[in-house]
Amino acid sequence: MATKTPKLSDPASWSPETQLVHGGVLRSQFSETSEAIFLTQGFVYANAEEAEARFKNESPGYQYSRFANPTVTMFEERMKLLEGAEEARATATGMAAVTAAILSYLKTGDHIVAARAMFGSCRYIVETLCPRFGIEMSLIDGTDIANWRAAVRPNTRMFFFETPANPLLDLVDIAAVSKLGKEVGALVAVDNVFATPLLQKPLEHGADIVIYSATKHIDGQGRCLGGVVLCSTKFVTDHLQDWVRQTGPSLSPFNAWVMLKGLETLPVRVRAQSETAAKVADHLAGKKGIKQVLYPFRADHPQAALARRQMKGGGQMVSFEVEGGKEGAFRFQNSLSIVKISNNLGDAKSLVTHPATTTHYRIGPAARAELGISDGFLRLSVGLEDAADLLADLDAGLAAVERG
Ligand SMILES: *Cc1c(COP(=O)(O)O)cnc(C)c1O
Question: Using 50, 70 and 90 to split pLDDT, how confident is the model at 7?
Fold first, then answer.
């Protein structure tokens, strides 16, 4: 038999594109090409002694799919490789991942600081749920490192933020906040959904925990919910492992399989969608009917330099404000033929959201004003359609804004 090149036999040495196709594969005795779906709740033991050894952790192997499952393991292993993390734990949704990362670690008397520009449900966890369990919280404008420093208390144990954040694509300096976290003894958890694991690697900038809603770009085709937490072995052993095993936010093996297949095409999709998003942002900027365009890799983004420093690309999300407030935004949305109105993102289909009346309706006008979400703001998740078709569709939306 020919000997294989040693370097290439180590998946950690592969490029992301290769890791996402071959990483973490566990082949069964049938040597299937595509990853198998182990749609089973449990596992059987050859004899009573084996069952005993498995439960005493003296023999490796699976016991029950709330704890672990081979298809879910493949997804976790592939994510670990891509992120360069020691450990990964998959969850049923992105929110289950956020909740697990925060509540498996913090306890009564601790303090969490979070950037207030974030996904609505994440804000609920920090602002409403944490205080119910005696966990103090501070919501700050995360774009300025001075605000993080000013919010630190003796009991601060965690920093949490999204970057780019939903829906206005403002950024947090991951390296600066991570440095402060080390200084004051707070773990830094980053919700990295908008950037995707390909365009931004928070662990390389010093963060401790990275969280994804796999529902978004990892699936990428609008099918299944899922989430994942990436972190150190120590965090899993000391905190996350028991939370996931005992409270049961486990990912379904079927959904893990969908995510595995999604990961295979993630680089191709993210590249194509980011290219189109950059074109969309440039096309919209300065057009009649547009007040403002926000895209991290445009020179007029307020944090363009930081974006270039910590991201490899601008991503596939574009935010923009149209003239005419809510009426203008509604006319825009209602005139689109290709782009669909939805609160989701990261899909193959382009999706437009009006945050003020949907995702950010519940936080109320004062909190929206604080975040800079005016009634004319729209958030666009750019899909895989032809760029020229999309630009023509958006022009039709702008024409409707102008018609008034
Ligand atoms: C969608 C999303 C979540 C929640 O994920 P689910 O899979 O819907 O639970 C959390 N954070 C961000 C930034 C998201 O976009």
Answer: confident
The residue segments making up the domain with residue 81 are 11-262
Tens-place pLDDT, residues 264-291: 999 999 999 999 999 999 999 989 999 9
What are the C-alpha distances in Å from 283 to residues 23, 193, 290? 38, 25, 11
CATH of the domain at 72: 3.40.640.10
User: What CA–CA distances, in Å, run from 208 to 171, 229, 230, 375?
Assistant: 18, 11, 8, 36
Residues with Cβ within 8 Å of residue 317, at least 6 apart in sequence: 164, 169, 194, 277, 345, 379, 380, 381, 382
Determine whether the shortest distance from the Cβ of 227 to ligand 1 is under 6 A.
Answer: yes
pLDDT tens digits for range 105-119? 999 999 999 999 999
Is the distance from the beta carbon of residue 164 to the nearest atom of ligand 1 less than 6 Å? no
Tell me which of 262, 293, 327 is where a domain ends: 262
Residue to mutate (ligand 1; options 98, 199, 200, 215; most atoms within 8 A of CB): 215
Report the pLDDT averaged over residues 19-41.
97
pLDDT above 60 for 1: no
DSSP 150: H
Q: Are residues 285 and 176 in the same domain?
A: no
Binding site membership of 95 for ligand 1 (Cβ less than 6 Å): yes
Q: How far apart are CA 235 and CA 242, in angstroms?
A: 11
Q: What is the mean pLDDT of residues 147-175?
A: 97
Measured in angstroms, how far is the CA atom of residue 194 from the centroid of ligand 1?
9
